[in-house]
Design a protein that fits this description.
- By secondary structure, the protein is of the alpha/beta class.
- The strands form four sheets. A five-stranded mixed sheet has the order 7-6-12-13-14. Strands 8-9-10-11 form a four-stranded parallel sheet.
- α2 crosses α3.
- 41% of the residues are buried.
């Protein structure tokens, strides 16, 4: 048996070791009840709940079986059959072949278009824009139907380094979402968020949250940062969305003092109107963005886990399923939505093989995208998993 790499442990008198930044409204923490008086430690797993345990030997068992498989007979002799059976029953210990087979998709990240009318400094589109493509409606309907069938999807998005409001099928897609009861977290630069689309959002009632990328309110600086001329149109449409009463979050990309000034200016302008204005984590997209945004990350040895391949289903304009939101070139594809039920694809050998690399169960190649990503660094404050084999 081997310890699931999805498990993190915590002391009852300490804050949780993991937090979740990837669910639109973040950060959130694991759900926990007050620990009983005799609690020795807690376990946080895929369900994001803290499970308290009174026997410190259970933690020793999980630590002993974390680096590599341990024969059940050896574990039972050392820790007792009852403790071993409890760990197996809880899925804390698993057969080696079952490691990383579980997942829990909370969102569907659907690339409805593959182009953007901005070329922001902090985005790969600025140096290598993609050809214009649009997901056909029949493919979108299949994607939506299969996401809804899982029963775990809390919301979908329409973005992947693109601008969703350029989509000619935008209002049609809202109707499909409404038919399946799937809320939409709409990430947009607001340049195409015209009255027709605002009315479509209002009429279909699918909007969970409107997240507007607005790096600055200053028109000249806006033009330099985004390489676009949509300043007036974007701000006008943002104002109309606020007038419509939509829940609006303005995210401010950038680094350094200039970003801080932009953040302050935008807060002064839009918070009185009801918008939430927040800085967002501007990164180099696993090495695909340079200049002042380059992070030069290179993770050596065993990788240490990440929530994206477990919680968020990234689906390309062609229907391909790929690893995560930082994979601009969609290098790590593990299936296509037309291959069958989504659960079958997520539990397939290719998907499981990728997750094994992400969580350090299998060795990742030197050029594996996760080796260049801040989510894999040990000190990243938004870690969603701290596998016992890596962190103890």
């Amino acid at each position: 048996m081997q310890t699931s790499p999805y498990l993190s442990t915590m002391a009852p008198d300490q804050p949780p070791p993991v937090r979740y930044l990837t669910d639109t409204f973040g950060p959130t923490l694991p759900t926990q009840e007050p620990p009983p008086p005799d609690t020795a430690f807690g376990v946080v797993g895929l369900d994001r709940n803290v499970h308290w345990h009174a026997d410190p030997r259970m933690r020793e068992l999980l630590q002993a079986c974390a680096p590599e498989p341990v024969p059940s007979s050896v574990a039972a002799t050392r820790f007792g059959t009852d403790l071993l059976e409890e760990a197996v029953r809880r899925d804390w210990l698993q057969e080696p072949d079952d490691l990383c087979r579980d997942y829990h998709l909370r969102s569907g990240e659907i690339e409805v278009t593959a182009h953007c009318n901005w070329g922001c400094d902090f985005c790969p589109v600025s140096t290598d824009p993609k050809p214009q493509q649009t997901m056909p409606m029949d493919l979108f309907e299949e994607v939506t139907e299969k996401l809804a069938a899982l029963g775990t999807i809390e919301y979908v998005t329409f973005h992947f380094f693109n601008e969703p409001t350029l989509d000619k099928h935008f209002n049609e897609r809202l109707e499909v979402l409404a038919g399946h009861g799937l809320p939409l977290a709409l990430y947009t630069n607001a340049s195409g968020l015209n009255e027709s689309k605002i009315e479509g959002l209002r009429r279909n009632g699918v909007l969970r949250h409107l997240i507007v990328n607005l790096p600055t309110a200053d028109e000249d600086r806006f033009s330099r940062l985004t390489r676009s001329r949509t300043h007036s149109r974007s701000l006008t449409n943002l104002g109309k969305a606020l007038d419509a009463g939509f829940p609006v979050q303005i995210v401010v990309n950038g680094v350094g003092e200039s970003r801080d000034q932009d953040l302050q200016d935008l807060r002064e302008r839009y918070e009185p109107l009801g918008a939430e204005v927040v800085p967002t984590m501007t990164c180099d997209r696993a090495g695909d963005v340079g200049g002042e945004y380059r992070q030069d990350i290179r993770v050596q040895g065993r990788l240490t886990g990440c929530g994206w391949p477990l919680a968020h289903g990234n689906i390309s304009v062609r229907g391909d399923l790929f690893l995560c939101c930082n994979d601009y070139y969609q290098r790590e594809v593990f299936g296509n939505i037309r291959d069958g039920a989504l659960d079958e694809i997520m539990r397939g050998d290719v998907a499981v093989g990728l997750r094994r690399k992400v969580f350090g169960v299998a060795q990742a190649a030197d050029d594996f995208i996760c080796r260049r990503c801040h989510n894999q660094t040990l000190d990243f404050p938004g870690r969603e998993f701290r596998p016992i084999a890596t962190f103890g």
